[in-house]
Amino acid sequence: xxxxxxxxxxxxxxxxxxxxxxxxxxxxxxxxxxxxxxxxxxxxxxxxxxxxxxxxxxxxxxxxxxxxxxxxxxxxxxxxxxxxxxxxxxxxxxxxxxxxxxxxxxxxxxxxxxxxxxxxxxxxxxxxxxxxxxxxxxxxxxxxxxxxxxxxxxxxxxxxxxxxxxxxxxxxxxxxxxxxxxxxxxxxxxxxxxxxxxxxxxxxxxxxxxxxxxxxxxxxxxxxxxxxxxxxxxxxxxxxxxxxxxxxxxxxxxxxxxxxxxxxxxxxxxxxxxxxxxxxxxxxxxxxxxxxxxxxxxxxxxxxxxxxxxxxxxxxxxxxxxxxxxxxxxxxxxxxxxxxxxxxxxxxxxxxxxxxxxxx
Length: 360
Hints:
alpha/beta
């Protein structure tokens, strides 16, 4: 089918139905640099090249960061995302921050956490279920073989440790509403069997699954003809089983396909563009603020160039009203990164359009 004509017609109709975007203020709190995994693609705050020691955020720093964000955003409604490193290695601070926020009158706080699940325990699971957490993201790239290759445990006991992660996830899914729990899988050249990974995660019990390409390490670049051809095949197959699993109730969302489907069917006309520095900040363990965790310590002049490119480079693209736009971190660090991300998003959208048109 003619994708270009489809997009032209869609954009004309979308302009009529476009809603005003609602700002969703949120911050990342990097509460620790410490991590118990050694992910081969890590680009988070725990990437310690420029740090002399592994440290943890203290309560005063967390409190000051929260009030800085409230003042800068001029809002009384804020989402706080506990990040790391592995945030459960500073579990005590999570309890302190949530308790403090719950006692602040006239403010509305929600919380989320991104964890590898190795240190999930009954206490934190119960705490999440009883407080205002609206998102729990589990970083898990696939089965034992994939995890062992991409996310090795530092103090490894092999499968024993890996299966403790599986058991912790199952316990979380039993005790916490799975509508707020998402499996986030990063794929690299080592893990391009997306369909197999999707089925594995769904069988574990996840109702929400999120795929993201690795765009942070040249040694694991997906910018290779062989990899991209394989990826295209996998994405085409993913679209098919996406509809099968949604219809059967096995899952409720798969990102990014669910986002694109909602937009293409006008169930939701809002595109989730990068909001780094607009209504999102990230605070490092020492309280230093960045637009997001991907550009911590960025040079001001280079960051300004990256922000301008993020906000303008997609302006005339036919996919602009559907895709999620460009990642500031990808733009900042490498032109090849954001072009790769752009290419992959088009793969998803094209596959979705072709399937929908074929199955009208």
